[in-house]
Input
Amino acid sequence: MMQQEEKLRVSTEQLEGGLGLVAAAGYINNEGGQAIADAVNELVASGCRTILIDLEGTRIINSIGISILLEILDRLMESGGTMAFCNLTPTIARTFEIMGLVQYARIFPDRAAALAALGRDG
Output
């Protein structure tokens, strides 16, 4: 039997001030990236302008996953929104740097720091 890759689990939460939180745990590939995109679209549709993606449970993200995140970021910026990430592993942080995500999205060490900063900005 083939071993299952860790399926991505995504949960969302609407916080005050138009802030949406997406917590993702697992492997971000095309399927995982799409799950995050759907979660973000839902939050944006319900009025969130700022999206925080918490990758605490995520260890691996592939190139398709990255390109989906870039698409989400693009759409968000076009509509005047902002995107932030927190709890990145050193590998994912480095990948985000190489792919240019850090130029457009804000990166925070953990959720508390992100919520403090984003809550004040909103």
Summary: Strands lie at 9-15, 19-25, 50-57, 82-86, 106-108.
